[in-house]
Design goal:
Layout lengths: L1 E6 L7 H12 L3 E4 L10 E5 L15 E3 L11 H4 L7 E2 L2 E2 L10 H5 L3 E2 L13 E4 L8 H14 L2 E4 L10 H9 L6 E3 L6 H13 L6 E6 L5 H13 L3 E6 L9 H11 L1 H6 L2 H9 L6
Parallel strand pairs: 1-2, 1-3, 3-4, 5-8, 8-9, 10-11, 11-12
Antiparallel strand pairs: 6-7
Helix pairs in contact: 4-5
Length: 289
């Protein structure tokens, strides 16, 4: 058979499609990436999407679809889902202890649990592994194991989904410092988190991590003043920030949020210009390249 694989968000690696690819190639079939205008050339097509706001109206009904962007219930057959592609990215745990209203992880994956380890993802050669775990710090013993494997094999880890700043302890930070890693990321989703963010930054600095990247959710349930307060706090404390615009159907995004993201997500502008300075330069005819 000839199997087509279509990733609706090609900017992001799709683990489910890679498992499907490996399953069919192991059974002597052809499995390859394809585009919608090529669907008719295949005996079977799988399409996967991460985000519900991605356009799906052009996907015909005979295509097998899955992923959070389509629904939360479709799962891979066990003979495919249990495959370990060893492509240097994936999950070592699933689920989360939180129940954030904007997040589907608890509904989709349930309470946090370990599902593998670093060696189940690593190809034995790469110096980098990307972890997609949603709340690995909620499993401190498992996190210790992952860090130990990273040290032993000289692997640099990218905790791609960020870490839960509310769970930080001096002991966990000691583990974080002990491994090679991409810049650590956290989330400052709500103004009510300000005390815990202050505490986290203090703990991180005491442990030797002076700066981290903080995702700042906007357009969900906060005012623009709330958003600006969080960003200015991070800027004043020499932290990096990334404006994460909420894309759900009930989002409250405005043109101001577009400008806010433009200011913050270009980190050189974020550090060199205040918000008022950015607006003055943008709207007084000075071109920001």
């Amino acid at each position: 058979m000839r199997i087509g694989l279509y990733n609706l968000e090609p900017k992001y690696k799709n683990l489910a499609l890679e498992k499907i690819r490996l399953f069919y190639t192991n059974h002597k079939h052809t499995a390859e990436n394809c585009d919608p205008f090529e669907f008719s050339n295949y005996d079977m097509v799988y399409a996967s999407s991460i985000f519900d706001f991605t356009n799906k109206r052009y996907i015909p009904p005979n295509v097998i679809t899955g992923g959070t962007g389509f629904n939360l219930k479709t799962v891979l057959p066990s003979e495919i889902d249990t495959i370990e592609p060893h492509l240097n990215f994936g999950f070592t745990s699933r689920g989360c202890i939180r129940k954030c209203k904007f997040c589907v992880v608890p509904q989709k994956e349930g309470y946090v649990k370990a599902t593998g380890d670093l060696l189940s993802l690593w190809d034995g050669k790469s110096k980098d592994v990307v972890l997609l775990d949603n709340n690995i710090l909620a499993l401190p013993d498992h996190f210790d194991r992952i860090c130990r494997q990273a040290r032993e094999n000289k692997i640099r880890i990218d905790f791609n989904q960020g870490l839960d700043h509310r769970l930080l302890t001096p002991e966990l930070i000691e583990l974080m410092v002990s491994i090679s890693h991409v810049e650590y990321r956290f989330a400052f989703d709500d103004p009510a988190y300000l005390p815990s963010v202050e505490n986290a930054i203090s703990l991180l600095k005491a442990g030797g991590i002076n700066r981290a990247l903080w995702y700042v959710l906007v357009g969900f349930n906060t005012s623009f003043d709330d958003d600006l307060m969080r960003l200015n706090y991070l800027r004043d404390n020499n932290q990096r920030a990334f404006v994460q615009r909420y894309r759900g159907k009930d989002n409250k995004l405005t043109k101001l949020h577009t400008n806010l993201a433009r200011w913050v997500n270009r980190h050189d502008w974020f550090y060199s210009l205040t918000w008022d300075q950015f607006l003055k330069r943008q709207y007084n005819g000075v071109k920001l390249n």
